[in-house]
Design brief:
The complex is a heterodimer of chains A (412) and B (196).
Chain A (H helix, E strand, L loop, with lengths): L14 H36 L15 H10 L11 H18 L16 E4 L2 E4 L8 H22 L3 H32 L4 H10 L3 H4 L3 H13 L24 H26 L15 H24 L5 H32 L3 H50 L1
Antiparallel strand pairs in A: 1-2
Helix pairs in contact in A: 1-9, 1-10, 2-9, 3-4, 3-9, 4-5, 5-8, 5-11, 8-9, 8-11, 9-10, 11-12
Chain B lengths: L1 H21 L3 H21 L3 H26 L15 H22 L19 H10 L3 H22 L11 H9 L1 H8 L1
Helix pairs in contact in B: 1-2, 2-3
The chains are: A mainly alpha (412), B mainly alpha (196).
């Protein structure tokens, strides 16, 4: 049975190996919890700055302990269980949300020297290992599978509350998450084409050998990944899943106290994980110049941290800048723009790959490919426009008829 | 260790399967189905079929059961259903016969097997577990390409058919007869019975 390609696990498993694995898992767990605490503070502080406010300022220096105070407060709040709730599922749902959020981070390589053909191993207690909790051969599929599982948390939370608005909210939320998962998966599939592997470690190694995937796949999949990822995280401008103005809040309306906190904990954790996955897939993971030889192991960690921070900043920035989407606009963007675009781009990259293999001339292949894609896109947009026009016409007719029959009733 | 993992996941699979049969609430039954699918995914990992394990979770747990749940929730049959109604006549005896024959088939395989249960692997694995994704892809798009294309056509036809069925017919919409609305309103039980 092969669990991972990690050199740590290759020559037999003894006590040291088990301890190292446990240590890595424990550190990742603690790191994520602390990081969530800091990210919530970072978001509140940054968005205050963007809106000319001060933000949290009282708990600790610069209000840095605000999240801790909020967390303690939430702990001591009354834990409500609605009478019409399905008790078991209601209690289970927050955990279905938070466990995938934790586990998904396990496949992210956070450090290790990938420069100059390095394979990212570090030595830990005399053993060489990768700086990631696990490196399954199907790494990124593992991430996609977990984000599929996370849908259950949202869906069951809404259903088990035994109340109308959470149910409607959860149906909307799961429809959103499933729709955008397709676009996300197709954007990631392009990365598989250029890297030729599913393992996160191999993807990072491949990028340090050639160029970062953001360029190798031609930027479009990166853009699609960012948009679909934002929607998958239910972050603004796609946050109608949980906004107070929509359906009294959404799937978590009936939740209170620590269970409510678990949903938001998992959400911020997903934000960190999504940023880390984006860095791994498109921006070379922890790769970056090693500036000093003295504490060389710090630099990859530093570059990784910097790249993740850039994404976190972007998420907050988006929240401060963009107004929220309407639900039909959200579905239109996902199904009519992102999925066809991701699929078309995937086909183009695959064609270029085949052309390179068979030694076809590049420029004609690119021209033909772009023409075919353009033809497909115009067919699709034509169909969408036609359907829309017909629907509008029909709605007009329907409105006329209702108006006519209403006036007829009035006369009678 | 493999035996331990097998026993644990077998317990998970079997208890999930029993749960699907015994749960009164359709949503609980769907959740037990998810439990079974996860157990099977672990068994796939144990057999070095990591790609199948990931796809099992993504497709079955992530898409198909979610679809079941959508239908259950939107049709509002999420409370225990009346088991007295039999939507298709003769369904239950037929199910009993088919189920029994399936069990008989499995039992025959176990009993007639030449060496009994050996626990040995069925055959020599082709290649390394690390590249089973690559091998699966090669097999699907070379030897099996005809079957793959046929499946693709089947799925396309299913999608087109679903769209065609869901499309509203053009022309003026007929108002619903008032009598029918009153009936549905008076007797909600009958409406859910029809849906299921």
């Amino acid at each position: 049975m092969i669990l991972a390609a990690d050199p740590l696990l290759v020559d037999g498993i003894d006590l040291t190996v088990v301890l190292i694995v446990l240590l890595k898992a424990g550190v990742a767990f603690a790191l994520l919890l602390v990081a969530v605490m800091l990210v919530i503070w970072f978001e509140r502080k940054l968005i205050s700055d963007m809106q000319n406010r001060i933000g949290p300022a009282l708990a600790g220096p610069w209000g840095i302990l605000q999240t801790l105070a909020d967390g303690i407060k939430l702990f001591f709040k009354e834990d409500l269980l609605p009478t019409r709730a399905d008790r078991v599922v209601f209690r289970l749902a927050p955990y279905l949300s938070i466990i995938p959020a934790f586990v998904a981070f396990a496949i992210v390589p956070v450090g290790g020297d990938f420069s100059d053909g390095g394979d990212g191993t570090v030595s830990m207690f005399g053993r060489s290992t990768f700086l990631q909790v696990a490196d399954p051969p199907v790494g990124v599929l593992f991430f996609l599978a977990l984000s599929a599982v996370a849908v259950y948390g949202v869906m069951l939370a809404g259903w088990s509350s035994g109340s109308k608005y959470p149910l409607l909210g959860s149906v909307r939320a799961s429809a959103q998450m499933i729709s955008y998962e397709a676009a996300l998966g197709l954007a990631i599939a392009t990365v598989f084409l250029s890297s030729g592997s599913l393992s996160t470690h191999d993807i990072v190694v491949g990028q340090s050998a050639t160029t970062w995937n953001v360029l190798a796949t031609g930027i479009v999949p990166f853009g699609i990944f960012l948009i679909a990822g934002t929607a998958e995280l239910n972050r603004p401008p796609f946050d109608l899943v949980e906004a107070e103005q929509e359906l009294v809040g959404g799937f978590h309306t009936e939740y209170s106290s620590i269970r409510f906190a678990l949903f938001f904990l998992s959400e911020f954790m997903n934000m960190i994980t999504m940023s880390a996955i984006a860095v791994t897939l498109f921006l070379g993971g922890p790769a970056g110049p090693i500036v000093t030889q003295r504490v060389a192991w710090v630099w990859p960690l530093f570059w990784f941290f910097l790249k993740v921070m850039a994404f976190l900043f972007t998420f907050v920035w988006l929240r401060a800048t963009l107004p929220r989407f309407r639900y039909d606009q959200l579905m239109d963007l996902g199904w009519k723009v992102l999925i066809p675009a991701a699929l078309g781009w995937f086909l183009l990259i695959a064609t270029l790959d085949v052309a390179a293999d068979l030694g076809w001339p590049t420029i004609p292949v690119v021209i033909v490919g772009v023409l075919v894609l353009w033809g497909g896109a115009s067919l699709l947009s034509g169909a969408v426009r036609k359907a829309q026009a017909e629907r509008l016409e029909e709605a007009d007719r329907g409105a006329d008829e209702t108006a006519g029959s209403a006036s007829g009733l009035g006369e009678a | 260790m493999e035996v331990a993992v097998f026993i644990v996941s077998a317990v998970v699979v079997l208890s999930g399967a029993l749960g699907v049969l015994l749960a009164r609430n359709p949503v609980h039954a769907a959740l037990f189905l998810v439990q079974t699918l996860f157990g099977v995914a672990v068994l796939f990992v144990l057999l070095d079929a990591t790609f199948l394990a990931a796809v099992q979770v993504m497709v079955y747990a992530g898409a198909i059961v979610i679809l079941f749940l959508f239908v259950i929730m939107l049709l509002g049959v999420d409370r225990a259903d009346d088991l007295g109604i039999e939507p298709i006549a003769g369904q239950r005896p037929l199910a009993a016969v088919v189920g029994m024959s399936l069990a008989g088939l499995l039992a025959t395989v176990l009993l007639v097997a030449v060496d009994g249960l050996t626990g040995a692997p069925a055959g020599t694995p082709i290649g390394d577990a690390g590249d089973n994704t690559r091998r699966l892809g090669e097999a699907l798009f070379t030897d099996m390409v005809f079957a793959v294309e046929l499946t693709a056509i089947l799925l396309t036809v299913a999608v087109v058919g679903a769209v065609a069925l869901a499309r509203r017919l053009s022309g003026p919409m007929q108002p619903l007869p008032v009598v029918a609305i009153a009936e549905v309103d008076d007797d909600p039980d009958e409406a859910t019975g029809d849906d299921s």
